[in-house]
Q: What sequence folds into this?
């Protein structure tokens, strides 16, 4: 095992896939000469040249569409959005072109491409630079959505996403890039994690905290706090939101009979809405309490530090939600 | 619409020389355009009796743009276009039976009945669709051009769009990238003067031909009702592109003889009946070519009639085949959403697979 950052894990995945398949290329703002706005593509220009590592103009709609066009004739583009906030400009190409191409061509034109970059808030970047974009993407059939929370998941899932023949939105996190973790050594062979498999990040028997992406770490913090109170929380990391590992969700709910969904985004039509619907449709009898959701406050992200802190979901909020579904008066923090 | 400025002299088209084409070729051109016309008329008929539904945008009046630009291409070149796409598909060699069956929503249609009129695709023929969002196909064309260059091929991608598309951001972003990376794309504006019911000049400060120069793409214009002029200019532009000179932009001036789509009037509040009638009388691309062939003694009324009977028969047969073909099976609802069905996770969330539980 190597201990590397989330950023390095992504860089390894890109590098290995570029090496493996001549059809893979990386395009986006600042990906080449600048080494990536978040340095995810560091060194790739030097290694692969400007034919395959391509700096784009600031034209999200344009270069997302260019990626779709290249995929239409068999290349495997990796389109980097500096952040998914900016990809809202590109949604026409993502939804109307990438997601629907295979269907409206009657199966003739697959879309083997990846849109990747960070989603969600960092620190004090305020409203337009701090939003979780999962819902925009997961809503449309035809797209797959991957949200790794750890370095190992980042590497294994990015490699799987690049090899997938459908359009994959791959959402990272600005605050995750420096997170370190164990990842299998390069020498130990191809490390690929298949899409559609959730991962139990912590076993527990009393309550399930189901989550994805960056919030895995918040869930684990909450579980630690609950442990002090004698509560064993299970943390289920969905890892991919479409395809969704429904079996794993039902399994943890049947085990603990109580669930909290934790996500970084807004509640209305958020990922949690779908998870709650799925659980109540398919495991209603297993529930001992209503499922609660912990989300961002239902407001645009404020700038002021204290307000921003209040707006974000945090471990204390998760602890309180867990206590509520356990019908107990916990300390809350 | 105001008369546009002429371009620099070297970009002017020489009067298309009839001698460049032999008689068989010229007769073939006329037959091909007649086929497009009769095909669209048949679609109109089928729409009127409910065999075709949804939006259906006819190309009647604009046939010379389809043939004059796609005709000179190689088989392995690509064409991508907007939603007024039937005749362009035919021009790229897509089977008329497949296109008609798609309009009828049949399983034998080019997109297995899942695309319809606006989404004709034939990847094998290099016909990359039929796209429904104005200007949305323009970045896709840049991507196809990018892939051609990436693979060091000498293919060309032609991207059609209506005049209204030049006011979309996608147009500007795509042309800029095409210019900066010298992508092998011919951007063709089918300038029929109206974006649906809005005259181009009412919503645009500059004429169509001037919209590409600021982005670094050489611009040209042509009388899109004159097949031979369009063909001749296209040949020279495609040659430049194939030689690695980068993208070119062509304002092909044409006119739509029918309404924007089948549900719209031919004329009315936005353009007068007189305007349409005079265009049909004086600017019909089929009549223009026919008259030249008559003048040259290459064709007479009888020959024309025989040709027309032949293409009508072809179109009737396509419609009959479409009518006879089966609709897609119910199971097809869920195919082609994803090309890889995931063995671990769920991809569809409507719960219909559990309705019988």
A:
């Amino acid at each position: 095992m190597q201990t590397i950052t989330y950023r390095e894990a992504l860089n390894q995945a890109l590098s290995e896939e570029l090496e493996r398949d001549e059809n893979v290329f990386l395009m986006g703002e600042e990906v080449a000469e600048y080494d990536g706005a978040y340095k995810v593509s560091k060194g790739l220009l030097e290694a692969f040249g400007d034919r395959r590592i391509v700096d784009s103009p600031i034209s999200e709609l344009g270069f997302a569409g260019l990626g779709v066009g290249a995929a239409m004739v068999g290349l495997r583009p990796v389109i980097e959005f500096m952040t998914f906030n900016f990809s809202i400009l590109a949604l026409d190409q993502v939804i109307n072109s990438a997601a629907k191409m295979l269907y409206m061509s009657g199966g003739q034109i697959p879309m083997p491409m990846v849109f990747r970059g960070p989603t969600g808030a960092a620190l004090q970047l305020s409203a337009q630079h701090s939003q979780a974009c999962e819902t925009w993407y997961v809503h449309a059939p035809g797209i797959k959505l991957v949200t790794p929370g750890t370095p190992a998941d980042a590497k294994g899932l990015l490699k799987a996403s690049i090899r997938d023949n459908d359009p994959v939105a791959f959402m990272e996190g600005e605050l995750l890039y420096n997170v370190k973790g164990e990842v299998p050594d390069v020498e130990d062979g191809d490390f690929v994690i298949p899409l559609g498999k959730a991962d139990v990040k912590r076993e527990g028997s009393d309550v399930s905290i189901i989550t994805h992406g960056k919030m895995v770490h918040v869930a684990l913090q909450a579980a630690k706090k609950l442990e002090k109170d004698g509560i064993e929380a299970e943390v289920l990391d969905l890892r991919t939101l479409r395809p969704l590992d429904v079996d794993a969700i039902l399994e943890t709910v049947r085990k603990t009979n109580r669930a909290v969904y934790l996500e970084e985004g807004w509640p209305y039509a958020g990922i949690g809405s779908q998870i709650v619907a799925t659980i109540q449709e398919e495991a209603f009898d297993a529930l001992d309490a209503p499922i609660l959701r912990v989300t961002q406050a239902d407001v645009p992200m404020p700038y002021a530090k204290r307000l921003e802190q209040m707006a974000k979901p945090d471990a204390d909020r998760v602890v309180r939600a867990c206590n509520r579904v356990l019908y107990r008066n916990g300390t809350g923090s | 619409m105001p008369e546009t400025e002429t371009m620099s002299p070297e970009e002017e088209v020489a009067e298309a020389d009839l001698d460049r084409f032999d008689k068989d070729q010229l007769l073939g051109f006329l037959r091909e355009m007649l086929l497009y016309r009769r095909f669209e008329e048949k679609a109109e008929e089928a729409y009127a009796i409910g065999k075709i539904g949804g939006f259906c945008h006819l190309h009647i009046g604009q046939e010379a743009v389809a043939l004059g630009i796609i005709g000179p291409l190689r088989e392995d070149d690509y064409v991508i276009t907007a939603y007024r796409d039937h005749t362009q598909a035919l021009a790229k060699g897509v089977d008329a039976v497949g296109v008609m069956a798609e309009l009828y929503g049949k399983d034998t249609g080019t997109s297995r009945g899942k695309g319809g009129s606006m989404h004709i695709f034939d990847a094998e023929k290099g016909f990359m669709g039929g796209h429904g969002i104005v200007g949305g196909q323009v970045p896709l064309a840049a991507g196809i051009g990018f892939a051609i260059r990436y693979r060091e091929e000498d293919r060309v991608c032609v991207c059609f769009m209506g005049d209204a598309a030049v006011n979309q951001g996608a147009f500007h972003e795509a042309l800029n990238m095409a210019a900066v990376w010298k992508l092998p794309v011919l951007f063709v504006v089918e300038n029929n003067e109206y974006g649906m019911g809005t005259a181009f000049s009412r919503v645009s400060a500059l004429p169509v031909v001037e919209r590409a120069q600021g982005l670094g793409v050489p611009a040209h214009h042509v009388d899109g009702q004159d097949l031979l002029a369009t063909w001749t200019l296209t040949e020279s532009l495609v040659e430049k592109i194939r030689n690695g000179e980068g993208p070119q932009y062509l304002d092909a001036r044409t006119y739509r003889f029918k309404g924007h789509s089948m549900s719209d009037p031919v004329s009315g509040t936005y353009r007068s009946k007189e305007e349409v009638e005079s265009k049909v009388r004086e600017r019909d691309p089929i009549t223009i070519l026919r008259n030249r062939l008559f003048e040259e003694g290459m064709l007479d009324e009888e020959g024309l009639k025989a040709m027309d009977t032949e293409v009508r028969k072809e179109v009737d047969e396509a419609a009959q085949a479409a009518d006879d073909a089966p609709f897609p099976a119910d199971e097809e609802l869920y195919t082609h959403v994803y090309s890889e069905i995931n063995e671990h996770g769920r991809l569809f969330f409507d719960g219909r697979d559990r309705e019988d539980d």
About this structure: The beta strands of chain B are 78-81, 127-130, 157-162, 185-191, 194-195, 198-199, 219-223, 248-253.
